From TrEMBL:
UniProt keyword annotation of Nucleotide-binding present: yes
GO MF term (any one): GTPase activity
Keyword Nucleotide-binding (UniProt): yes
SMART domains tied to this protein: RAB, RAS, RHO
Protein name: Ras-related protein Rab-24
Length: 151
């Protein structure tokens, strides 16, 4: 492909433990969904990459996404800055059945804004929606509340 340019983009996932960060990464990088004993909690952080092609201003580009899946446990919180430093994008995750996880998402958003300023685009991701589809009363974070926070 003539005129291709390669772009490397560092992406970090942040959020409370067990909200679904690793499931998102596994699905994106390996097109699989780990369940039961196949799933292991992330310790520190895990890294993977994937190249995707996109078209920008009439030019084909290869974008290599370097994805950092960070541990959600508060004991690893002090290490997280190592992984999100220099990120072009951050996916801040919360679980729709856990209101406390949205509070942790607020914390991570403030941290990113404090240290990364405008260089890092921040995306909010509500995880485990399938649980509230099957049992609507489980929802603790409403769509309107999440949308307001995302502004």
């Amino acid at each position: 492909m003539t005129g291709n340019t390669r772009v490397d983009l560092k992406v970090v996932l942040l959020g409370k433990e067990y909200v679904g960060k690793t499931a998102l990464v596994e699905r994106f990088l390996h097109d699989r969904f780990l369940t039961g004993s196949a799933y292991q909690s992330t310790i520190g952080a895990a890294y993977g990459s994937r190249a995707v092609r996109c078209r920008d201003s009439g030019r084909d580009r290869e974008v290599v996404l370097g994805v950092w899946d960070t541990a959600g446990s508060e004991r690893y919180e002090s290490m997280a800055r190592i992984y999100y430093r220099g990120s072009g994008a951050a996916i801040v995750c919360y679980e729709v059945t856990d209101a406390g996880s949205l509070e942790r998402a607020r914390f991570w958003t403030k941290e990113l804004r404090k240290y990364e300023e405008d260089r890092c685009r921040i995306y909010l991701c509500g995880c485990k929606r399938d649980l509230v589809t099957a049992d609507p009363p489980l929802r603790q974070v409403g769509e309107a509340e999440a949308a307001e926070f995302a502004k």
